[in-house]
Amino acid sequence: MPDSITVHDLTSRPPGDIVALPIEVLAGLAGSIADMKALVAEAEARLNAALDRRYGDRAHQLRAADYKDAGRVRLDDGDFVVIADLPKRVAWDQNRLAAITARIRDGGDDPSEFVRTTLEVSERAYAAWPSAIRRLFEPARTVRHGKPRYVIEARREEAA
After folding, report:
1. Cα separation of 160 and 142, whole Å?
2. For residues 119 and 88, which has the higher predicted lDDT (pLDDT)?
3. Helix count (H) and strand count (E) of the chain?
4. I want to staple 56 with a disulfide (CB 3.0 to 4.6 A). Which of 16, 52, 109, 141 is the partner?
5. Distance of alpha carbon 79 from alpha carbon 16, whole angstroms
């Protein structure tokens, strides 16, 4: 087996063959894979930035029409459907949650009905709470959004 092997060759070689390669070759392959990952990550970031410029305003308008500030929406573009996803990232201030749970406990209620023991609050549960309880927790809650992501799919023809 030759000492020269490409990253592409790795996909067709059994690990037993690869393990026999000199460390210099393995190090070169590891470096090449790291470079490829960085290249793919940069290409993906640029493509997503371009897609966000192209579809971001429409996606925002569709979410707003549904009274949502995050989530998935579907955009038609010719023979394609673009799925624009804006994930919601919620963070809770741990010190404020601890103080709130202490107030609830001091009031004779069980804070575990509202807060997990890890001092995280389920977003689904928060949305279902009465507004008075939500207002109590709001100072401890921070909402951040992740990076927009897009998936492009060929439009499916519906059966007649």
Report:
1. 48
2. 88
3. 6, 5
4. 52
5. 46
Phi, psi (degrees; rounded to nearest 5) at 144: -125, 150
Q: Is residue 59 a contact partner of residue 86, using CB atoms and an 8 Å limit?
A: yes
* Both structure tokens of 39: 């290249």
CA distance 77 to 113: 46
- Quick count: other Cβ atoms within 10 Å of Cβ 81? 15
Residue labelled with tokens 């921070």 = 142
* Residue 4 per-residue DSSP state: -
Give the tokens for residue 32. Answer: 């090449």
Indicate if the pLDDT at residue 7 is higher than 90: yes
pLDDT above 90 (res 117): no
Cβ–Cβ under 8 Å, residues 119 and 97: yes
β-pairing, 80-86 with 88-92?
A: unpaired
pTM, two decimal places: 0.63
Instruction: Count CB neighbours of 68 within 10 A.
Output: 14
